[in-house]
Amino acid sequence: MSDCAFLFPGQGAQVLGMGRDLAEAYPEARNLLERAETHLRVPLGKIMFDGPEERLNEDFSAQVAVYTVSCMVTEVLAARGLRAAAMAPYSSGLYAAAYAAGSLGFEAGLTLMREADSCIRGHNGSGAMGVVLGLSADQVAELCTQVPGEVEVSIINTHHQIIVSGQPSSVTALLEKAAAAGALKTSLLPASAPYHCSLLADADQCLSERVARTPLAAPHTPIISYIDAQSLRSSPAMAKMLSIQLSNPVHWVKVVEDLVCRGLMPMVEIGPGQMLGRCVRWIHRRAVVLHTETAAALEAAIESVSRC
User: Fold this and answer.
1) What are the domain boundaries of the chain?
2) Domain 128-189 falls under CATH 3.30.70.250
């Protein structure tokens, strides 16, 4: 086991072409993609490789695509005998972290993601999300209190990159207030639900009933909760986390600070994109983050981790 941490991205990391290189280079990765397509009865590989982009960016498609690619990378690392000292999931990256830690079966993860999507749709989970650059979480939270309707700080990516979720009109009004208050940039995000805010409390209640029917094992590697940076080490702890994930905020700064405090370096971003790595380096300038989105990047990461 290496003194490194595995980071698992969520929705937003998807990009056309993701996973193609890995599926071509590694039989174990290709096998996992085929299992996903069989279970979902969806041509996931075609959607990931060729689009259309609008389909890939749909909430459920994006989440299962990122999950599958992260699990593909996990399979390659496991085949090389590489394990981390901690798993740090971001948002829906929780499912891939649970799979990597041996807590959740691959197909069970796909099923739970589909049921989470169903719970959101069935409990009036429509909404919007937006990002504010250049203001602190406290500043954005104060602005939220000045806006009619429901809008909340939902994700703290860095000290000055804050995501809000809520009713569409309230999110738009908040972004306008943030711009007037000196934000460097504000924009809406391509999400159709207000993830990580209290508007999804009913959806979480619905999902908790599905989680209760899902077999879960104790993680063989601690999973760091993005809610409070506590280590999840038991199957009941995993069940609780999976059951409250939709309506609770992501405190990514706390997670990164915890990993740095433990001396868990390098950090390895497991899956597509480099978004988490960029956030980590904004939080802690000296952090070392390796990436795995291509076969070449994955091989370089394996070599680096093997030397730790």
Assistant:
1) 5-123+198-307, 128-189
2) yes
Would you state the CATH architecture of domain 5-123+198-307? 3-Layer(aba) Sandwich (3.40)
Same fold, 5-123+198-307 and 128-189: no
pLDDT tens profile 201-239: 999 999 999 999 999 999 999 999 999 999 999 999 999
Three state DSSP letters for the chain: CCCCEEEECCCCCCCCCCCHHHHHHCHHHHHHHHHHHHHHCCCHHHHHHHCCHHHHCCHHHHHHHHHHHHHHHHHHHHHCCCCCCEEEECCCHHHHHHHHCCCCCHHHHHHHHHHHHHHHHHCCCCCEEEEEECCCHHHHHHHHCCCCCCEEEEEEEECCEEEEEECHHHHHHHHHHHHHCCCCEEEECCCCCCCCCHHHHHHHHHHHHHHCCCCCCCCCCCEECCCCCCEECCHHHHHHHHHHCCCCCEEHHHHHHHHHHCCCCCEEECCCCCHHHHHHHHHCCCCCEEECCCHHHHHHHHHHHHCC
